[in-house]
Amino acid sequence: MIGEQLVASNLPKADQSDVLVAKAVLRNIRSTPQKARRVVNIIRGERVDTALTTLKFAPQEIGADLYTLLNSAVANAKQKNPALRDSSELWIAEATVDEGVTLKRFRPRAQGRGFTILKRSSTITLTVSDDRGYRVNGQRKAAHVHKNASKKSGNSAGEGKAK
């Protein structure tokens, strides 16, 4: 079709291998996933050098750990491609925060009861790429939007409604 956009999974294997992708994982960091997601949402999709500056001055405690993790992902990218000059060529392709192990502690309460305290931890994964539109799942964001637009335009008024 004329004007059809390419989806990353339909690209030839040579085009997919040209994209530099590096990943770093921080497991069981003692911060709740809810607090970590607040900071990760700020840097998701940003250029790496901008994200490093943001994390360096973030008031949250998890910012320092994320700064170190992002530097590790950049080092992994430089290890894969020594021709990479600096972090300004990279983008944060994916940033996820998942639950880690939960430590269960008990606090004594009135009348001999015990109150459970859950000390949560997080597992944080950062993926950097030199392609801004790269998605780990294989599809580009623009192609996904294009698919949804064609589905919506195909249904005209009155079609598909029950009588």
Q: What does this molecule look like?
A:
- This protein is 36% helix and 23% strand.
- It has 163 residues and is α+β, with helices and mostly antiparallel strands.
- It has a single domain, classed as Alpha-Beta Complex (Ribosomal Protein L22, Chain A).
- The strands form two sheets. It has a three-stranded antiparallel sheet with strand order 1-5-2, covered by helices on one side. A two-stranded antiparallel sheet has the order 3-4.
- Strand 3 and strand 4 form a beta hairpin.
- The radius of gyration is 22 Å and the shape is elongated.
- The N terminus is likely disordered.
Number of helices: 5
By CATH reckoning, the class would read: Alpha Beta
**CATH homologous group name:** Ribosomal protein L22/L17
Give the tally of structural domains.
1
Structural class: alpha+beta
Number of strands: 5
In the CATH hierarchy, the architecture is Alpha-Beta Complex
Which percent range describes the beta-strand content?
Answer: 15-25%
Sequence of secondary-structure elements: HEHHHEEEEH
Write the layout of secondary structure elements.
Layout lengths: L12 H5 L3 E9 L3 H11 L4 H9 L5 H19 L10 E9 L3 E6 L5 E6 L2 E8 L11 H14 L9
Antiparallel strand pairs: 1-5, 2-5, 3-4
Keywords, separated by commas or semicolons:
single chain, 163 residues, alpha+beta, Ribosomal Protein L22, Chain A, 3-stranded antiparallel sheet, two-stranded antiparallel sheet
Summarize this entry quickly.
Helices cover 36% and strands 23% of the residues. It is built from 5 helices and 5 strands, in the order H-E-H-H-H-E-E-E-E-H. The model is unreliable at 1-14 (pLDDT under 50).
